[in-house]
Specification:
- The protein has 173 residues and is mostly helical.
- It contains six helices and three strands; from the N terminus they run E-E-H-H-H-E-H-H-H.
- A three-stranded antiparallel beta sheet has the order 1-2-3.
- A hairpin with a 2-residue loop joins strand 1 and strand 2.
- Helix 1 packs antiparallel against helix 3.
Length: 173
C-alpha cells in the first residue's frame, strides 16, 4: 500500500491487487456489521458501539441515563456515516477500470474517516476474539488456534495500512 499527499488536502492511496482484495473483504465485513442491530450483538461489541459514561461527577441517575442515551445515538449516527463510506468504497472498487494497482484519491477528512473505519475492524476483531496486547506481541507461529492467528495477523496488517496513511503526515521532512 502506498499513500502520497498530492495537494494540501488531497491524498492518493495505492493498493496492489492482493491488498485491494483484502481491503474490499474487510469493508464488506464492516458493511454487514454496520447494518447489524446493536442490541443483537455480543456484550463486548454492544458496549463498543453504545459507549459507557464513567464520570464520577454525575450524581443524578436520570442525568447519567440521558447522557448515555445521547452517546448511544451519536454512536448510531457514526455507524450510519461509516456504512455510507464503506458502501462508497465498495461501489468505487466495482467501477474501477484498473485494479492493479487500485488508486483512490480522497480528501484529508475522507482519509481520516477511512483510517477510523479500518481501526473499527481492528477493535471489533480484538473484542470478538478476546485478543489482547500480549497476544499481539506473541510470535504468530506459537498461536495454536488458526482462527485467532489469522485475526491477529489481520489486526497487524490493518495497523500497518493505518501507519502508511499517517506516515506522510507524521514524518514530514
Amino acid at each position: 500500500m502506498t499513500c502520497e499527499q498530492i495537494d494540501p488536502d488531497r491524498w492518493r492511496l495505492g493498493f496492489s491487487e492482493p491488498e485491494a482484495g483484502f481491503i474490499i473483504n474487510v469493508l464488506a465485513w464492516l458493511g454487514k456489521h454496520y447494518r447489524e442491530d446493536v442490541s443483537r450483538m455480543p456484550p463486548a461489541l454492544r458496549a463498543y458501539w453504545q459507549g459507557t459514561i464513567t464520570r464520577d461527577k454525575i450524581a443524578d441517575k436520570e442525568d447519567l441515563k440521558e447522557l448515555q442515551e445521547v452517546l448511544a445515538e451519536a454512536r448510531a449516527e457514526l455507524r450510519a456515516e461509516r456504512l455510507a463510506l464503506v458502501e462508497n468504497w465498495l461501489r468505487d472498487f466495482e467501477l474501477a477500470e484498473e485494479r492493479d494497482p487500485w488508486k483512490v484519491e480522497l480528501s484529508s477528512a475522507d482519509r481520516d474517516e477511512f483510517i477510523s473505519v479500518l481501526n473499527d475492524r481492528r477493535m471489533l476483531l480484538a473484542l470478538e476474539m478476546g485478543i489482547t496486547e500480549q497476544d499481539m506481541e506473541a510470535d504468530p507461529n506459537e498461536i495454536p488456534n488458526e482462527t485467532r492467528r489469522v485475526g491477529i495477523l489481520e489486526i497487524d496488517v490493518l495497523g500497518h495500512f493505518i501507519l502508511v496513511m499517517l506516515g506522510p503526515q507524521i514524518y514530514r521532512p
